[in-house]
Specification:
The structure holds 2 protein chains of 2 kinds. By secondary structure, chain A is α+β, with helices and mostly antiparallel strands. Chain A is built from 4 helices and 10 strands, in the order ααββαββββββββα. The chains are: A alpha+beta, B alpha+beta.
C-alpha cells in the first residue's frame, strides 16, 4: 500500500512538472501599462521592428552651431529649394523622412533594417552586412545616402554618407542643411521595456557646422495590430494645392 | 489511561507522514517549475521566419526566362486569361491612351526639338503606385526584408508593399482604400511563403486579365534549393472577371552579395522628364 502511494506521489510530481513545463510562465501581476508597452516587453532588445510615432513631446532639438560661411542668403536659398521640392512632390529624403507626420515602419531583417514612411520618400536601407560604405566612385548619391549599421551593446549605430545635395529636403532640424560632404551618425536604442525608440542624430559637415550638431527624437511604439492607412498621394499637378503652396495666405 | 498504539499502526502513520511530505514536495516542485520554465516551443508564437523562409530575403531582379526581349513579349507567352463576358468588357474599356503629344502629332522634329511622350511625368496615381511594383515588379530590383510580423517588398520607386505575417485577418475591402499593392496577409507552407491579397487598385493583369478591389490574388514565393532564384506563382481569382483562375509565373535572380538599392528619382518640375528622343544636331 505504502509502495503504491509512494509511486503515486513520484508520478504526480513528474506529471505536474511535465505539464507545467509546457505551459507559459505565469505573468507578473499586470501593472497598469499600455497594450503597446505590454507587447513590447516580450520583444527582442536587438530588434527595433515595429510601427513608431512621434508625438508632441518627442523632439529635443537644440539650435545648431553654424559655420561662419553659412550666411543668411545661403539659408534662404536652401529654404527656397526645399519649398520647390515640396511643390513638385520630390522624394523628401533624410532627415525629413524621419519626421514624416505619420508613423514609421521599421523592419529589421538579417541583412538590413528598412525604414519606410507613407509619404513621398524612398525607403531607408540600413545594411547590417557591410562594414564599409560603397565607394564614392561607384555610388549614385541619393536623398537618403548610403547607410550601414551594427549593434554595439544595446544600441544600433548607423553611419550615413553619400547624400545628394540636389535631392530631397536638405534643411536639418535646429538649423543648417546637408551637402554632398555631410556625415550623419545615428544611435537607436529601445527604452522603457521596448515601448520607446530613442534616435540620436549627429550631423558633421565642416562647411555647415562649426561643431557637430546633435538632436534626439523619441518615438512611441504603436500597438501590434496597427496598420498604416494609405497616404494621400502627393500630386504635383493639383493646381489648387500648388496655389496654396505658392501664393500668399488668403490669395485663391 | 492512554494506551500505547500498536507498532504496526505507528509505522503506518509514519509512512503516511512521509507520503504527505512527498506530496508537499511535488506541489512545491510544480511551483518552482512554473516560475522557471521556459516558453514551450509548441506554444511559442509561431514564427514564419524559418531558416528556409529567410531565403526570400535579399535583392532580386526579374529574369526573361523565355528570351522574349520585352515585358510585353514575356507576358505574351503566358496562358491567356479566360474572361467572362463582363471581364471582356472591362478589359476592352480599360485601356489608357498615351498622353504625350508625340503619339498623335504628325510632324518630324528638328534637331534639338524633343519629342514629348509624357504629359505629366512623376504622376501620383495609377495601378503601379502605392507599392504596386511590389506586386508586379518591372526591370528595377525589388528588395525584400523579412521580419516575423511583416515582410516588406521595396521596389525602387512608387512606394513599398507590406505583407502581414503575424496572423491578422484579411482586410474588409468595403472599408479599405484600394492601392497598387492592396492588403496582403501571408503564412508559410513549409518553405513557401503564401500570400493572399485583396483591395488592389483596378488595373490590368499580365496575360490579358484585369483586377478589381474584390479580386483575390494568391502568390506563392518559392526560392530554389541553391537560393539563387525566386519564382513567384500568381493566381488571380474573381468570378466576375475570370471563368477560371488566371495563373502565371515570374522568375527572379538574386543579386550578388554587396548589392544595394538604387533610388529612382523623378522631378516633376524638370521639363526634361517629359521628353523622349531629341534628335542631335547633324554635322
Amino acid at each position: 500500500m505504502y509502495r503504491v502511494m509512494r509511486l503515486a506521489a513520484i508520478a504526480l510530481m513528474l506529471a505536474t512538472t511535465g505539464i507545467f513545463a509546457g505551459a507559459p510562465p505565469l505573468a507578473a501581476p499586470a501593472a497598469r501599462q499600455s497594450p503597446a508597452k505590454a507587447a513590447a516587453m516580450a520583444e527582442n532588445p536587438h530588434d527595433i521592428s515595429g510601427y513608431w510615432e512621434l508625438s508632441f513631446d518627442s523632439r529635443k532639438i537644440p539650435p545648431s552651431d553654424l559655420a561662419p560661411g553659412v550666411t543668411k542668403t545661403i539659408l534662404e536659398q536652401k529654404a527656397a529649394a526645399d519649398a520647390r521640392a515640396i511643390r513638385y512632390c520630390n522624394l523628401v529624403g533624410t532627415p525629413s523622412v524621419m519626421d514624416p507626420g505619420r508613423p514609421l515602419d521599421i523592419r529589421e531583417g538579417t541583412r538590413e533594417v528598412i525604414i519606410t514612411a507613407d509619404v513621398n520618400a524612398s525607403p531607408r536601407h540600413i545594411y547590417l552586412d557591410r562594414a564599409k560604405h560603397i565607394s564614392a566612385d561607384e555610388f549614385d548619391t541619393t536623398s537618403n545616402g548610403d547607410s550601414i549599421g551594427h549593434w554595439d551593446g544595446d544600441a544600433l549605430l548607423v553611419d550615413t554618407v553619400g547624400f545628394d545635395p540636389k535631392k530631397g529636403l536638405v534643411q536639418i532640424p535646429g538649423g543648417g542643411f546637408r551637402t554632398a560632404d555631410s556625415h550623419l551618425t545615428e544611435r537607436y536604442r529601445l527604452l522603457e521595456d521596448g515601448s520607446v525608440l530613442s534616435v540620436v542624430f549627429t550631423w558633421e559637415d565642416a562647411k555647415v557646422f562649426r561643431t557637430p550638431h546633435t538632436y534626439e527624437f523619441r518615438y512611441y511604439r504603436m500597438p501590434r495590430q496597427y496598420e498604416p492607412v494609405p497616404a494621400w498621394k502627393c500630386d504635383p499637378y493639383d493646381e489648387i494645392r500648388n496655389k496654396f503652396l505658392e501664393n500668399p495666405i488668403g490669395m485663391k | 489511561m492512554r494506551r500505547r498504539a500498536p507498532a504496526h499502526l505507528n509505522e503506518s502513520r509514519a509512512r503516511m507522514r512521509r507520503f504527505a511530505w512527498m506530496l508537499s514536495c511535488a506541489v512545491l516542485a510544480t511551483g518552482v517549475f512554473v516560475s522557471l520554465a521556459p516558453e514551450s516551443p509548441a506554444l511559442a508564437q509561431s514564427s514564419p521566419a524559418t531558416g528556409a523562409a529567410k531565403g526570400i530575403e535579399g535583392d532580386w531582379v526579374r529574369t526573361d526566362s523565355g528570351g522574349s526581349g520585352s515585358f510585353g513579349g514575356l507576358s505574351d507567352k503566358f496562358k491567356k486569361a479566360e474572361l467572362t463576358p463582363a471581364g471582356q468588357g472591362t478589359v476592352a474599356n480599360s485601356g489608357r491612351p498615351p498622353t504625350g503629344p508625340a503619339y498623335t502629332e504628325d510632324r518630324v522634329h528638328k534637331p534639338g526639338d524633343p519629342y514629348i511622350v509624357v504629359e505629366k511625368p512623376c504622376g501620383a496615381g495609377g495601378p503601379f503606385a502605392g507599392g504596386g511594383l511590389g506586386v508586379n515588379p518591372d526591370s528595377n530590383a525589388i528588395h525584400i526584408v523579412q521580419q516575423k510580423d511583416e515582410v516588406v517588398i521595396a521596389p525602387e520607386r512608387n512606394g513599398v508593399r507590406r505583407i502581414y505575417t503575424d496572423g491578422r485577418r484579411q482586410a474588409d475591402v468595403s472599408k479599405w482604400t484600394p492601392t497598387g499593392s492592396g492588403h496582403g496577409v501571408g503564412h508559410y507552407e513549409g518553405k513557401v511563403l503564401v500570400v493572399d491579397t485583396v483591395g488592389l487598385a483596378p488595373g490590368p493583369v499580365p496575360g490579358g486579365g484585369y483586377r478589381t478591389t474584390e479580386t483575390h490574388l494568391t502568390e506563392r514565393f518559392e526560392v530554389s534549393p541553391d537560393g539563387r532564384h525566386l519564382t513567384i506563382h500568381y493566381t488571380y481569382s474573381d468570378p466576375k472577371i475570370y471563368v477560371t483562375p488566371h495563373s502565371y509565373d515570374y522568375t527572379f535572380d538574386r543579386l550578388p552579395v554587396g548589392s544595394y538599392a538604387f533610388e529612382d528619382w523623378c522631378d516633376a518640375g524638370d521639363p526634361h522628364e517629359r521628353e523622349s528622343i531629341t534628335i542631335p544636331e547633324q554635322k
